[in-house]
Specification:
14 helices, mainly alpha
């Protein structure tokens, strides 16, 4: 496979995973705007912006006393994270960039995949925050999540299982590891900053990862922060856990074709092994989870650089003269 095609599929997977992850967070956040206390709304925005390592467009995320002002701020923040084209992490940018990469690798996709993604792209292109805010913003985010879920299902059912399939899934897995470790870190930091966080904030985090029922069966109905974090990080049977995602990432990296840059490829494999060891062996004995999650996030960025060096921007060797 040409390196530019592999890179296009890789980035398509990353952008769509990013758009879906943010849509799930924003759905949870906009649902909380209806009847939750101001402190919980403030906590939610701290968590979202902490995950993205982004500053709000105006001012800072200071807790305001009046509900009206808080809701007005929420409108501005939701616009920044949903439809702002200059924000590379916004939902609009994720779908738009994912579709643009898909257009360049159209020959690697099934017709059904292109139709599904193009329909999602066209649905949101003419929208603004005013269009979704007046009715039900959470419905818009739920529909966006469902559209990307549908695309993933269509890809699983119709895409040819060649190297393109591997690079698409490799991009999704790397993005998920980075986003998940950043979100868990942001959850801990936001809890420390707000001091008084209700159980709802941790219940919402479990819901985000489809893990609330599993938690109830494992630990009981009372949600304890450390137990919630342990479940989301180390339970390999949970589809979106860090342990499960790293296992999938290792498998995709192993099954991908040999890299022209064997040194960078070997370093990538070893780095995934270290990340897996942090989650599977060091996590439960670690008291400072923030430091461990920061380390995972940094490793995720380094892994992206190694994958890029291994498969996309590898050095060309001189052909000996005859």
């Amino acid at each position: 496979m040409l390196s530019r095609s592999a890179e296009g599929l890789y980035w398509m997977g990353r952008y769509l995973e990013r758009a879906q992850h943010l849509s799930r967070l924003l759905r949870l956040q906009t649902e909380a705007l209806v009847d939750r206390p101001v402190g919980e709304i403030h906590f939610g925005w701290l968590r979202v912006y902490g995950t993205l390592h982004r500053q709000p467009p105006v001012g800072s995320l200071e807790l305001l006393a009046q509900d009206d002002y808080t809701l007005a701020d929420s409108y501005t923040l939701a616009d920044d994270l949903t439809f702002e084209p200059t924000n590379s992490d916004s939902v609009w940018s994720g779908i738009s960039n994912g579709r643009e990469n898909a257009r360049h690798v159209r020959h690697c996709l099934s017709a059904e995949m292109w139709t599904c993604l193009n329909r999602t792209y066209l649905r949101i292109q003419g929208m603004t925050i005013q269009d979704i805010w007046a009715a039900s913003p959470e419905r818009f985010y739920a529909e966006t999540v469902a559209d990307i879920d549908t695309f993933a299902g269509v890809a699983a059912a119709t895409m040819y299982r060649d190297e393109g399939w591997r690079f698409l899934n490799l991009g999704r897995a790397i993005e998920r590891v980075q986003l998940s470790s950043a979100l868990l870190h942001a959850q801990i930091v936001a809890a420390e900053l707000t001091h008084d966080v209700s159980e709802v904030a941790w219940t919402g985090l479990l819901r985000l990862y489809h893990a609330l029922e599993v938690y109830d069966r494992t630990y009981g109905l009372t949600v304890e922060p450390r137990q919630a974090l342990d479940l989301l990080a180390t339970d390999a049977r949970l589809p979106d856990s860090l342990a499960r995602t790293l296992h999938r990432l290792s498998a995709e990296l192993t099954d991908t074709a040999a890299s022209p840059d064997t040194q960078a490829a070997g370093a990538a494999h070893r780095l995934v092994g270290r990340m897996s060891a942090l989650v599977n062996y060091a996590w439960l004995d670690q008291d400072d989870l923030k430091a461990l999650l920061q380390q995972l996030t940094a490793h995720g960025r380094d892994l992206h650089d190694l994958v890029t060096a291994s498969f996309f921007n590898y050095p060309l060797h001189d052909v000996p003269a005859r």
